[in-house]
Amino acid sequence: MYSVIDVGTTGVKLAVFDASLNKIHFEKTSIGYKTLQTGRIEQDSQLMAEVVKGYARKAKISRRKETCPNNV
User: Quick one: pLDDT band at residue 72, thresholds 50, 70, 90?
Assistant: First the structure.
């Protein structure tokens, strides 16, 4: 099983593939952006980090279920 986390300018995506590279899970979270007082635009890095951590936990759980199907 393979998991890919893509952090981009519009959001964060998680894709999980089985051993034959068939996509078995996909989800995307839009992060958005905030406008600073200077007029600059930036992404919310704390929100991005939380989304990535959540996706990593999901990928780890999916991996555990794949390797230990009786262990729920």
Answer: very low
